Amino acid sequence: MISDTILNVVDLHKKYGDSIALDGVSFRVRKGETKVIIGPNGSGKTTLLKCLNLLVKPDKGRIWLGNIEITDPRININKIRRKIGFVFQDFNLFHHLTVLNNVMIGLVKVRKLKKHQAYKKAVDALSTVGLDNTLYHKYPAQLSGGQKQRVAIARALAMDPVIMLYDEPTSSLDPQFVNEVLQVIRKLAKNGVTSIIVTHQIDFALEIADEIIVMHKGRIIESGRPTELLSNPQNILTKKILIRNFRTLR
Amino acid sequence: MDFWSNFLINLVQGLTTTLQILVISIPLSIITGFILGFARVYGNKIIFYISTGISTTFRGLPLIVTLLILFFGLADLKIYLSPFWASILGFTLCGGSYISEYVKGAIQSIEQGQAEAARALGMNKLQEIIYIILPQTLIRALPGVSNEIIYMIQYSSLSFVIGVKEIFSVAKTFNSLYFRSIEIFTTVAFVYLLLIAIATLVFKIIENKLKIT
Ligand SMILES: Nc1ncnc2c1ncn2[C@@H]1O[C@H](COP(=O)(O)OP(=O)(O)OP(=O)(O)O)[C@@H](O)[C@H]1O
Ligand SMILES: [Mg+2]
Questions:
Q1: Of A25, A81, A125, B206, which shows the fewest CB atoms inside 10 Å?
Q2: Whole-angstrom distance, CA of residue B80 vs CA of residue B71
């Protein structure tokens, strides 16, 4: 295995009843890499991402995070999950906790940090995502969509994850809030945070990705650097997705 | 001693008993309701059937029947509860069963994403329930719970059937001695209204404290 591989996914399969969501997916992510997954609705992107922290249990296949096989049934998955940052499409902030406590709860209850250490890390993470400190004691219901998603990113980031997984982080946002969230993801990726991003924002994908993975019907149909995919797409679907969505292409 | 002083002295004694029953059975029924409610959602098959069985039974039985069974029925089986403790047990089982409905509904109304986010942070099932699900359940079940508590205050009068000397039984006794129904029952009605007003106020305050908009 290449030494700087941080995530190694081998031959994942997942069915829901009779419908096949993942049909043999394999790929690697290197440390510091930004991987973007695109593909039509229902192609298995969310399922793939949730398999990576075992929120969804794959039927078959193996996953290594660093040199630990997380699909090993003897592993304590809670220990693994705390190192994998997950950002949901619908934010999933804890309704009953303030912004600050949303970010602190994992640090205090899962990582067992002292309150003041957790507070410091939470404030760090919140300022990294550019959240105004006047919002720290607000509840999620009082925030805009963009603010909520930035808090969700901070909540994941504060845990010092080895990798960040984003599932369509801007799909639930009103258009005016999309950029502030993309800006944060871009900044983290530039700073070397290893990331896998599922998105339908093709121009963002092309701009930020080290490698783009194109999924269709539970398989990876193509992958490559953005420039490669743009100049020489191998698959007709890739071409369609890129042309339909990329504004400056033509 | 004239009617009023005699009546009022006894009424205060009755009220004391009513309050003792309520102060014990309200917290017990809330605890029972939460345990039953969580057992019905999170329990394995056996726990699910037991908790659902308890809750269905005591919601199904008229409270007056429950009280008679707990006092006279159990006595036939050589289990002797005092009227006081039999009514506390009855109110706890009945109130707890109804509260478990509100709790179950509240848990099920919490979006799947809340639990998913908890797990994604690395929480185990117990942490997820204690830190994420339980507090949100408390908030969402509160209006239902406060309703149930108000019913319990009203239904506490039923314990007269097993001989508890609470306010309603004092009223009944005095009515059969003096036949001054209007004065007696209006006074008792006023006491119940007062208790319910206080309970309503307390729950409003708690609800406002927990409000999270
Ligand atoms: N919990 C589930 N139960 C049953 N089927 C599911 C479930 N989740 C996903 N599926 C099915 O699995 C397939 C892959 O779904 P998935 O959500 O992974 O796709 P996706 O690429 O994320 O789609 P989208 O772009 O709409 O988010 C779809 O056919 C979907 O209907
Ligand atoms: Mg999806």
A1: B206
A2: 7
Question: CATH classification of A93-160, choosing from 3.40.718.10, 3.40.630.30, 1.10.10.60, 1.20.1580.10?
Answer: 1.20.1580.10
User: What are the per-10-residue average pLDDT scores of chain B (213 residues)?
Assistant: 90 96 97 97 96 97 96 92 96 97 97 97 97 96 95 95 94 92 94 96 92 72
Domains belonging to chain B, first-starting first, are 3-209 (1.10.3720.10)
Closest CA to A212 of A190, A241, A248, A187: A241
Shortest-distance Cα residue to atom 26 of ligand 1:
A41
Cβ distance A81 to B139 less than 8 Å, yes or no, reads no
Quote the CA–CA distance of B27 and B91 in Å, as a whole number.
Answer: 11
Find where tokens 């899962």 sit.
A110
CA distance B113 to chain A (A): 5
pTM score? 0.91
Q: Are B33 and B104 in contact (CB under 8 A)?
A: no
Among candidates B207, B205, B170, which has minimal Cα distance to B188? Answer: B170
Contact between residue A130 and residue A180 where contact means Cβ atoms under 8 Å apart: yes
CATH class of A1-83+164-250: alpha beta
Q: Quick one: closest CA in B to A87, which residue?
A: B117
